[in-house]
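[scheduler] slot 2 assigned
[scheduler] job type: sequence-to-structure, two independent chains
[scheduler] chain ordering preserved from manifest
[runner] begin chain α
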Amino acid sequence: MKVPIIISEPPPEFGELLESPEFLDPNMMDSDVTYVPGYSEARLARDRAIVEVLQGKRAAKDVPTLPAKFRWERCQNKKGDPDTRPVIQAGNNGYRVVHKDDIGEGKVVTSMPPGAEVQADGTIRLGDTVLMVTDAQRAARNELQQRARTASASRGAEAGFAEALEAMGGKSKGSAPFISKEVGHRVRAELAPKQKSKEA
């Protein structure tokens, strides 16, 4: 005679939770310590649009463009002492610190990030980081420059490898060595018309 196994366990400490639309909502940034209200949702929406382009469900020209790029930049070293070098470097790349006046209804950042604090000078701090921003045009320029530097370094590495093989005068057994390069899908979204940025 077979008896079915009955799994029994005590109820959860804080009661039962019935699944709701919010339960598995990827927009809920519960585990994202870099979450910035308003901006993070816009970034996620853009990422989803790019996936739809790769799936053939959306035209590349219809991918939304972010009006600005926000980032948390470290302003302390490992010992907890002030260290503004990363902030200065970000400034050299066109970023500026975000002030409390940059946050609010109708703006890219709709409210204060959870856990962040407004400093005496109006800047936004979260732990050992400060919130910084640059406009879309400068963010695009930074990205293109980074791609150009990466491509240049890759070409240099390939050329150096080929020269080293030729100088050695040897070839591997079987087939000759070769360099394989794989380029991913390219998605291009037009930037919004350039607008004057509002400084706090």
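[runner] end chain α
[runner] begin chain β
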Amino acid sequence: MLNRRNWVVSIIALLVVLSVAACTAAPVQVPDRDIKVDVDTALAAQNKAAGLMSGKVDWTESEFSSLLSVLLQQNGGTNNPIDGVRVWFEPDNKVYIQVDLKEGVIPNVSTLDAAGTVSVANNHVMVDLDAVGAGNVSVTGASLAPLNAQINAALADPSLGVAANVSTDTGTISVGLGSGS
């Protein structure tokens, strides 16, 4: 499982980037498809994750989002600033992420939104964020390099396995492990 410190550091890095970077007054747009997030769906997604041992797993947006949300809730502790996460998948490995914040974490902001792509490099899943936003403010370009580096360092954790490929389509993600998956 991901170390909660890595997520907290990533959020702090995002806030620092937002405060010092040249920001634009435009929100990051996420798809308008509804994603159901609940414990039962998270358990189903966790059971599907056992399929990684045989080489491949396919998750829907709801399964992936539920699994992430429940893991963050269970491992985040009492000071966890996150209520939940929703992740949308589009063709060509495009992803959109919306992090629901608990009330009062950032004044007048209820979500952090991000858009980017996923890939595999050096046998680990990698994320390349194109835009990150809080409320009506977003950051794009090279300003996101430190945040991408922090997220990718967390994803390179050996306990997450060795990815051979990752692909997305509308509403789904497929992750293959080992060679030739």
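[runner] end chain β
[qc] chain β: The first helix runs from residue 4 to 20.
[scheduler] slot 2 released
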